[in-house]
Write a structure and sequence with these properties.
By secondary structure, this protein is of the alpha/beta class. It is built from 2 helices and 5 strands.
Length: about 100
């Protein structure tokens, strides 16, 4: 249930048991990312508008087709008119936070 480094016993990735919501911070805001959402946002402006006093969880699918079964999200947004890979979406969200916090 984990992936270890090839050159040692260090764990690189651990699979967690469902429900995944048990691992979210208490009182967090859960935002689903899907290109099928009705609300399309500029991710840089959206991240800048988020409250700073509440934990944020982004739910992003890691597959090319279909939709995340995300009954537990508070809001669904799209950051593009086109479908993007999970890695591109995660990269764009990370870059938005880098810009917000001035990490260059």
């Amino acid at each position: 249930m984990s992936i270890r480094a090839t050159n040692g016993p260090e764990k690189l990735l651990k699979v967690i048991k469902n429900p995944v919501t048990d691992h979210f911070p208490t009182g967090c805001r859960k935002i689903g990312l899907t290109h099928k959402a009705k609300k399309i946002v500029n991710i840089n402006e959206y991240v800048a508008s988020l409250p700073t006093d509440q934990p944020i969880v982004f739910v992003c699918g890691a597959f090319a087709h279909g939709k995340v079964q995300d009954e537990y999200v508070d809001e669904e947004i799209s950051i593009s008119d086109y479908p993007l890979s999970g890695s591109v979406v995660c990269g764009k969200v990370c870059c938005a936070f880098e810009q917000l916090y001035g990490i260059l």
